[in-house]
Amino acid sequence: MDTTLNVSKPDSARVVVVTGGALGIGGAISRRFASGGDHVILVDCDAPAAAATSSDIAAAGGRCTVLVGDITQQSTVATLCALVRDEAGGRVDVLVNNVGDFRPASAVFLRSTAEQWQKLYELNLLHVLMVTHAIAPGMVERGSGSIVNLSTVEAYRGIPGHVVYSAYKAGVSAFTKSLAVELGPSGVRVNAIAPDLADTEQTPSELMLAGRNPALVRSWVPLGRFGQPDDYASVVEFLASDAARFMTGQTVPVDGGTLAASGWYGKTTKRGWTNLPDAS
Ligand SMILES: NC(=O)c1ccc[n+]([C@@H]2O[C@H](COP(=O)([O-])OP(=O)(O)OC[C@H]3O[C@@H](n4cnc5c(N)ncnc54)[C@H](O)[C@@H]3O)[C@@H](O)[C@H]2O)c1
């Protein structure tokens, strides 16, 4: 990961809350907003990783406040609100609900448990509702603000083995749409991105390849590579910016083209495409 930051100093820095803002896509989001001169309030349960990201940002002249905590706990959300009051007079311009995880699951739905569904719910949907419920009223009061949620391509395309995760992520995209309509008249925009194939701590590229020939990535991903965290952060930054001022309620795929290709693979001969799994 590139930790080099060049911080610019705009006239009015925004206050940006990033949940899970230490590592992976969230880490890149924290770095990107801070490098634009914004004050990042980073919430993460991994204290050493949060300290490392925060000190990179500070070393580059950026501003980052860290809250270490589990965002699925109401007490962490309450502490976040108190921190926002102390550090920014209660103002949040951008909220990025980034935490999400597919892992606490059984590979087969029929063998999964209610405890796993509950954990997946807390990690993928509940905190999005809780943090938004706590932060959005201030945005509505000020008549401006932008919320960006992290969904997944699997909200649109099936993912056998992770069906409960995909249901909650589809919930994130549905929440994004409906809340955008409710809050639009108040000047608050709500959008989401749907990543695929990000090379992060959660889904390292070696794990995604699982011993296969790296050359196969070309047949799998139209743009021919895995995504790096900043590939996603740049779209989050766009959605939160004035450049996207007439966009709300959308989930934007950031996937190197996999959703567009769904079911189609570049032939290993490098000549054309196939939708037949046994064709070369
Ligand atoms: N990696 C992918 O290919 C991919 C694909 C689709 C969607 N997504 C979504 O993108 C988002 C980021 O994914 P990632 O791969 O960067 O994740 P990651 O696991 O690599 O990083 C997640 C960050 O969130 C923190 N975190 C995890 N649980 C937390 C909690 N309960 N409270 C506070 N902090 C917590 C972690 O410490 C870490 O800093 C997630 O919502 C994920 O579902 C990722």
Outline the structure in words.
The relative contact order is 0.12. The protein has a single domain, classed as NAD(P)-binding Rossmann-like Domain (Rossmann fold, 3-Layer(aba) Sandwich), CATH 3.40.50.720. The mean pLDDT is 94. It is globular and about 60 Å long. Helix 1 crosses helix 8 (229-240) and helix 3 packs parallel to helix 4 (114-142). The strands form two sheets. The protein has a seven-stranded parallel beta sheet, with helices on both faces. It has a two-stranded antiparallel ribbon with strand order 8-9. By secondary structure, the protein is α/β, with parallel strands linked by helices. The longest helix is centred in the middle third of the chain and has 29 residues, at 114-142. The chain has helices at 24-35, 47-59, 74-88, 114-142, 163-183, 205-209, 217-220, 229-240, 258-261, and strands spanning 15-19, 39-44, 63-68, 94-97, 145-150, 188-195, 251-254, 265-266, 273-274. The structure holds nicotinamide-adenine-dinucleotide. Residues 20, 22-26, 43-46, 49, 70-72, 98-101, 150, 152, 195-198, 200-203 line the site of nicotinamide-adenine-dinucleotide. The site of nicotinamide-adenine-dinucleotide has 28 residues, from helix 1 and strand 2.
Would you list the SSEs in sequence order as H and E?
A: EHEHEHEHEHEHHHEHEE
What's the CATH architecture name? 3-Layer(aba) Sandwich
Strand content: 15-25%
Q: What is the β-strand count? A: 9
Task: Please identify which CATH superfamily we are dealing with.
Answer: NAD(P)-binding Rossmann-like Domain
Distinct small-molecule ligands in the complex: nicotinamide-adenine-dinucleotide
Number of domains: 1
Measured as a percent range, the helix fraction is 40-55%
Alpha-beta content class: alpha/beta
What is the alpha-carbon Rg in Å? 19 Å
Main sheet strand line-up: 3-2-1-4-5-6-7
Please identify the top-level CATH class. Alpha Beta
CATH fold-level assignment: Rossmann fold
Number of helices: 9
Please report the distance between the alpha carbons of the first and last residues: 34 Å
Low-confidence stretches: none
Task: Give the biggest sheet.
Answer: 7 strands, parallel
What characteristic shape results from the CA principal axes? globular
Average pLDDT number? 94
